[in-house]
Amino acid sequence: MKFFIKLNILSALYAIALFIAIELIINVTHISTLTGWDWDNVYIVIAAINVIGLLLSTILFIYLTKKWTIGRKYSYLSLLLWAPYFILLFSYFPVVFPINTGVTLFPRYSLLIYGSVILYPVYILFINLYASPLSTDYKEIRH
C-alpha cells in the first residue's frame, strides 16, 4: 500500500513538472503584459526556467525513484500514471485560474507542446532505467 501511494505521488510530480513547463509557454502573452517585458525577453526567461526546472526535476525524480521504488518492476507504471494527473491539471487549472482563455499559440509552440507530451514517457523511462539497479545476483535474476 505504501508503494502504491509513493508511486502515485511520483507520477503526480511528473505531471506537475510537465504542466508547469507547458503553462509557462502558453501564458507568454500574459506574463509579458504583467511584467511589461518584450516577448523576446519573456521567451528567454521562460526557456531558462524550463531548462533549469528540467535539470532540477530530473535530479529530484532520480532521487525519489531510487529511494522509493528501488528494484521494483511496478515502478515502470509511472510511465502511464502521470497522464491522468496531467489531464486533470490541464483541464481544471483554466477553470480555477482562467488566465489563458482565448489564447492562440503560434504553430511552433503547439508543436513543441505536443512533442513534449509525446516524448515525456521516454524521459520517465530513462529516469526509471537510470534509477533502477542492474541485477547481477543469480538468485535475484532467477526469481
Cα distance spanning the termini:
22 Å
Q: How big is the Rg?
A: 18 Å
Outline type: elongated
Main sheet summary: none
User: Which class best fits the helix and strand makeup?
Assistant: mainly alpha
Tell me the total number of β-strands. Answer: 0
Number of helices: 6
What is the overall pLDDT average?
82
The helix/strand order is HHHHHH
Low-pLDDT ranges: none
Approximate strand percentage = under 5%
How much helicity do the residues have? over 70%
Notable traits:
single chain; 143 residues; mainly alpha; 6 helices; 78% helix; 0% strand; elongated
Please write out the topology.
Layout: H1 2-26, H2 28-35, H3 39-68, H4 78-96, H5 107-131, H6 138-142
Characterise this structure:
By secondary structure, the protein is mainly alpha-helical. 78% of the residues lie in helices and 0% in strands. The protein is built from 6 helices and no strands. It has helices at residues 2-26, 28-35, 39-68, 78-96, 107-131, 138-142. The radius of gyration is 18 Å and the shape is elongated. The mean pLDDT is 82.
Summarize the structure.
The chain has 143 residues and is mostly helical. 13% of the residues are buried.
